[in-house]
Design goal:
Strand order of the largest sheet: 2-1-3-4-5
Strand content: 5-15%
Mean pLDDT: 92
Distance between the termini: 28 Å
Low-confidence stretches: none
Structural class: alpha/beta
Number of domains: 2
Radius of gyration: 17 Å
Shape: globular
Largest sheet: 5 strands, parallel
Helix content: 55-70%
Order of helices and strands: HHHHEHEHEHEHEH
């Protein structure tokens, strides 16, 4: 098993220390950082997402894998910066106003980061105007809105309304969270809905036209 295969396995298994060590080994072997992501990290998280969808693993296991990927990325990102390499896409993400939950949002952000997205994470309890301001500043192709509480769904509705009314450039909006459904996404005019972080990567790539 070569270094990239070992790294992919370490990330999928949630072994953060191994993921960091193997990422450094891959760099020492002069493997391009983008190849490390494309050939090890992205397939690992795709595997994790697929197992999650099939109920073979659950949120704790997915979180551990995401943390392992974060350990690997912490070594790789400086190399991208120094080489002037930037992700192909940009996404703004946050939990809508009134919602302080961030586990699902953080999972999606990490998954997107490993799928060639630059992530602008606005955190939790984000007002609609802050989403709009971030879209104007960073000019993303995608905005991700998260809500765990039913009581914060009106804030999601208002955020979509403001983004549609105030942003004069094309931007795709994806929503997700426990009380969110495809029907709700259709009703409020969102472009996409993801029931979990694994699906969120597939839907994100579909929305931005990634090949």
């Amino acid at each position: 098993m070569n270094t990239l295969e070992q790294l992919s396995q370490a990330v999928a298994s949630g072994k953060g220390n191994d993921a960091k060590t193997l990422s450094q080994r891959a760099l020492d072997e002069e493997i391009c950082p983008s190849d490390i992501i494309d050939r090890a990290l992205t397939p690992a998280m795709a595997s994790v997402g697929e197992r999650f969808r099939k109920n073979l693993i659950f949120v704790p296991e997915m979180l551990i894998a995401a943390r392992a990927m974060k350990e690997a990325m912490s070594l790789l990102e400086p190399h991208f910066v120094s080489a002037g390499i930037v992700p192909k896409y940009t996404a703004v993400i946050g939990s809508v106003q009134g919602d302080l939950h961030d586990i699902g949002k953080n999972l999606v952000a990490i998954m997107w980061k490993g799928a060639d997205f630059r992530i602008i994470d606005l955190g939790v309890n984000v007002p609609p105007a802050k989403f709009a301001a971030a879209v104007r500043e960073h000019r993303p192709q995608l905005v991700g809105l998260s809500a765990l509480l039913t009581t914060t769904l009106p804030a999601m509705v208002e955020t979509v309304r403001i983004l549609r009314a105030e942003i004069d450039r094309p931007v795709r909006i994806m929503i997700g969270g426990a009380p969110v459904t495809q029907q709700f996404a259709d009703e409020i005019g969102a472009d996409g809905y993801a029931p979990n972080a694994g699906v969120a990567v597939e839907r994100a790539h579909a929305l931005v036209g990634a090949t």
